């Protein structure tokens, strides 16, 4: 097998090469070294040249093979390379397989990569477009840039969370004030609800009520609840045994889901186990305000209807008007001061015809805003309190 030194010896004896032992003028040698570094093809006399893309003497005739060495067009298949992308022992600027290589300006391996370790390092710097020092500087700059981006992202996230928290605070405060207006408009429909340990707001016709606890630690199964006259649902084909939570003993509270207690359909949700503190005896509005204060995520805003709502889970809600006089979104008269809202799917699955439930409207309702807007089926029972 032809070795690197054997190949070099063969080239030294090639026609036109300087005879062995010849003393070369130092200026001529310097010129050859400079030409070799520039890759001009004048590194040695005769057929021996330094190719523009190599740090090794080879042949100016691309593709010519002699003594096991080959100089390929714009890329080499020899021992040492400064700017090629081929697999070999020493590379200064490629990232491919080899004995040693210097990707992105690292040290090229040994004298074979350009005649000396120093030349190899220089070739590495030239091959990658950066010196090792410059590369280290670039790494530091990249790390600093990444750190700055991370700090900016964290600041943006914090400001976004703060803005979201502010929006929730506004919704919570305004929802409580609007609910107070509803209670004031129908004082005769507000009563103590001992079952839930709080208060209830009944619909004008008595067919439905919304109840809320004043002490979550004393209401083990639910803290907010809808109680609805079951007869219209049964008349429309409902089999109460098929409701998600089934049948409950009379007077029982629902433990989430939808159930039947013998006369009413109950939809309940548990908020927490806190014991809120009050200044004196809590009023109905004081107790309701604890929902916003402790569990603000349960309160939302339905922009299309200009309503606040309490979410009881599963698409079931109780809604009330932001302004009982007019829809602030459209300017139209507000004739739906309170609305009982149900997801129709559980009732359909239990045999009810949603379009045949007396006193309830089976309708498409827009939810979400902008690109997230969608229409969903709902069962609605709205009331105008005359506000």
Describe the structure.
The chain is an alpha+beta fold. The protein has 2 domains: 127 residues, no CATH class; 221 residues, no CATH class. Helix content is 28%, strand content 22%. Helix 4 packs antiparallel against helix 6. The longest helix is centred in the middle third of the chain and has 54 residues. The termini are far apart. The N terminus is likely disordered.
The ordered string of helix (H) and strand (E) elements is HHEEEEEEEHHEEEEHEEHEEEEHEE
What's the β-strand tally?
Answer: 19
Approximately how much helix is present in the residues? 25-40%
The strands making up the biggest β-sheet line up spatially as 8-9-10-11-13-12
- How much of the sequence lies in strands comes to 15-25%
**Uncertain regions spanning at least 5 consecutive residues:** 1-24, 35-135, 156-167
CA gyration radius, whole angstroms: 42 Å
Walk me through the topology:
Elements: H1 4-12, H2 26-38, E1 48-50, E2 57-59, E3 65-66, E4 69-70, E5 80-81, E6 88-91, E7 98-101, H3 117-128, H4 132-185, E8 190-193, E9 198-202, E10 208-213, E11 224-229, H5 231-235, E12 258-260, E13 264-269, H6 284-294, E14 299-302, E15 307-311, E16 317-321, E17 338-342, H7 345-349, E18 361-367, E19 374-383
Parallel strand pairs: 5-6, 6-7
Antiparallel strand pairs: 1-2, 3-4, 8-9, 9-10, 10-11, 11-13, 12-13, 14-15, 15-16, 16-17, 17-19, 18-19
Helix pairs in contact: 4-6
Summed up, what is this model?
By secondary structure, the chain is α+β, with helices and mostly antiparallel strands. The protein contains seven helices and 19 strands.
């Amino acid at each position: 097998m032809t070795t690197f030194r054997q190949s070099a010896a063969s080239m030294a004896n090639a026609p036109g090469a300087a005879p062995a032992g010849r003393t070369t003028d130092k200026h001529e040698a310097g010129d050859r070294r400079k030409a070799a570094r520039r890759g001009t093809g004048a590194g040695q006399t005769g057929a021996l040249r330094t190719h523009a893309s190599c740090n090794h003497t080879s042949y100016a005739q691309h593709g010519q093979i002699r003594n096991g060495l080959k100089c390929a067009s714009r890329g080499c298949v020899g021992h040492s390379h400064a700017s090629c992308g081929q697999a070999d022992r020493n590379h200064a600027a490629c990232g491919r397989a080899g004995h040693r290589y210097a990707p992105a300006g690292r040290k090229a391996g040994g004298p074979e990569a350009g005649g000396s370790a120093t030349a190899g390092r220089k070739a590495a710097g030239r091959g990658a477009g950066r010196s090792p020092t410059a590369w280290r500087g670039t790494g530091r700059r990249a790390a600093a840039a990444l750190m700055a981006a991370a700090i900016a992202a964290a600041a943006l996230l914090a400001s976004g969370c703060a803005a979201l928290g502010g929006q929730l605070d506004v919704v919570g405060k305004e929802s409580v004030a609007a609910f107070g207006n509803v209670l004031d408009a129908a004082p005769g429909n507000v009563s103590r609800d001992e079952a839930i340990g709080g208060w209830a707001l009944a619909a004008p016709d008595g067919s439905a009520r919304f109840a809320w606890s004043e002490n979550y630690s004393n209401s083990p199964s639910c803290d907010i609840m809808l109680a609805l006259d079951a007869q219209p649902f049964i008349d429309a084909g409902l089999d109460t045994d098929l409701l998600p939570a089934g049948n409950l003993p009379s007077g029982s509270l629902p433990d989430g889901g939808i159930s039947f207690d013998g006369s009413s359909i109950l939809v309940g949700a548990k908020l927490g186990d806190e014991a809120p503190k009050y200044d004196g005896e809590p009023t109905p509005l004081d107790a309701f305000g604890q929902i916003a204060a402790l569990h603000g995520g349960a309160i939302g805003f339905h922009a299309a209807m200009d309503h606040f709502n309490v979410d009881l889970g599963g698409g079931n809600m109780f809604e009330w008007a932001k302004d009982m006089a007019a829809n602030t979104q459209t300017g139209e008269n507000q004739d739906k001061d309170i609305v009982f809202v149900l997801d129709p799917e559980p009732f359909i699955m239990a045999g009810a015809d949603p379009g045949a439930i007396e006193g309830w409207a089976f309708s498409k309702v827009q939810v979400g805003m902008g690109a997230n807007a969608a229409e969903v089926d709902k069962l609605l029972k709205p009331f105008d309190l005359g506000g």
